[in-house]
C-alpha cells in the first residue's frame, strides 16, 4: 500500500516549483534590477539647437548723421593783450589806404595794432623778420611744437639767370634762365615761442643741440646741400667752357661743332634734381623728431 503512494509523492514534489513559478508575484516584492545591455553602443547626447540671433541691418552711410556745425569763433590778439573773437575775420587791402582786419563785417582793426589773428585759412602772426628793417610782416604758422614753423609767400621779380639762395629759407637754389615775377616762399621758425629765426641749417643746428638724432639729419641735409652747390658750379663751368670751345673750333669748312664738354655738363646738372629734395626732407624730419622728443 505504501509503495503505491511513493510515485504520487515524487510527482507532487516536482510539480510544486513549477506551480510556484506560474503564480503571480506579490505587490510587496521588489523586482530585480535589469542588467545593462553592453552589446549596443551608447547613443551620443544631443545638444539643443539654438536659433540664430537676429542681426541688425547695416547702417546706410548715406543716411548717417552729419557732424555738428562748427561754431568756433576765430581769435584776434591785439598788442595791448586784449583778445577779440568773431565768426568771420577778413583781411582787406583797399586800393587807397592801409590794410586792416574786418571782424564780422563791422569792426575794423589796423594791422599795426594786431599781434596775431586766425581765419578760415590758418593762424597768422605779425612780427619783424630777422636781420631786416623794423617793418612788420605777416607770417603764416605751418606747424606747432617746440619748434614752430612759419612761412611768408610773396611775388618777387627775379632777373638773375641762376636764381639765388634763400628761396626756401634753408638754401633752396633756383636755376631759372630768365627774369620775371615768381612766387617766393621764405620759411622761418621759432623755438619755444621765442624770436623768429631764418630756417637755415646752421640756425636749426644751434637750436637742436640737445637732440643727437636731429643733429645727424641736419648734417645729412648740409651734405646734400653742398653736393647740390658743387654740381651747379661744375655744370655751369663745363657748359661755359664747352660753349667757348665750340665757337673756337668751328670754321667755315666744317661748320659748327658741339664740344664734348657741353654733354659732360648734362649729368652734373641732373644731380641736383635727384638729391635736391633730400635736403628739404632731412630738415623736415629733424624738426619732426625734435618736436616729438625722439
TrEMBL record:
Residues 54-68 have a biased composition (Pro residues). Residues 22-69 are annotated as: Disordered. Residues 1-20 form the signal peptide. It comes from the Bacteria. Keywords: Signal. Residues 41-53 have a biased composition (Low complexity). This is DUF4178 domain-containing protein. It comes from Hymenobacter actinosclerus.
Amino acid at each position: 500500500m505504501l509503495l503505491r503512494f511513493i510515485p504520487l509523492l515524487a510527482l507532487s514534489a516536482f510539480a510544486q516549483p513549477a506551480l510556484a513559478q506560474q503564480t503571480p508575484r506579490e505587490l510587496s516584492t521588489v523586482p530585480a534590477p535589469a542588467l545593462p545591455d553592453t552589446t549596443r553602443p551608447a547613443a551620443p547626447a544631443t545638444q539643443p539647437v539654438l536659433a540664430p540671433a537676429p542681426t541688425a541691418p547695416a547702417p546706410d552711410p548715406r543716411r548717417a548723421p552729419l557732424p555738428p556745425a562748427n561754431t568756433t569763433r576765430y581769435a584776434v590778439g591785439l598788442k595791448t593783450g586784449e583778445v577779440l573773437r568773431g565768426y568771420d575775420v577778413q583781411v582787406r587791402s583797399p586800393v587807397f589806404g592801409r590794410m586792416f582786419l574786418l571782424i564780422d563785417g563791422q569792426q575794423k582793426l589796423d594791422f599795426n595794432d594786431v599781434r596775431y589773428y586766425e581765419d578760415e585759412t590758418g593762424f597768422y602772426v605779425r612780427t619783424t623778420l630777422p636781420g631786416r628793417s623794423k617793418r612788420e610782416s605777416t607770417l603764416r604758422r605751418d606747424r606747432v611744437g617746440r619748434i614752430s614753423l612759419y612761412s611768408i609767400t610773396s611775388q618777387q621779380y627775379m632777373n638773375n639767370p641762376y636764381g639765388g639762395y634763400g628761396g626756401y629759407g634753408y638754401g633752396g637754389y633756383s636755376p631759372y634762365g630768365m627774369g620775371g615775377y615768381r612766387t617766393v616762399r621764405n620759411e622761418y621758425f621759432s623755438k619755444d615761442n621765442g624770436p623768429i629765426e631764418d630756417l637755415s641749417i646752421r640756425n636749426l643746428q644751434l637750436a637742436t643741440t640737445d637732440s643727437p638724432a636731429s643733429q645727424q639729419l641736419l648734417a645729412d641735409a648740409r651734405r646734400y646741400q653742398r653736393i647740390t652747390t658743387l654740381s651747379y658750379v661744375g655744370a655751369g663751368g663745363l657748359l661755359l667752357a664747352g660753349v667757348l670751345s665750340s665757337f673756337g673750333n668751328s670754321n667755315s669748312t666744317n661748320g659748327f661743332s658741339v664740344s664734348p664738354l657741353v654733354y659732360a655738363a648734362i649729368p652734373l646738372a641732373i644731380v641736383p634734381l635727384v638729391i635736391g629734395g633730400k635736403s628739404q626732407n632731412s630738415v623736415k624730419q629733424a624738426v619732426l623728431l625734435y618736436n616729438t622728443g625722439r
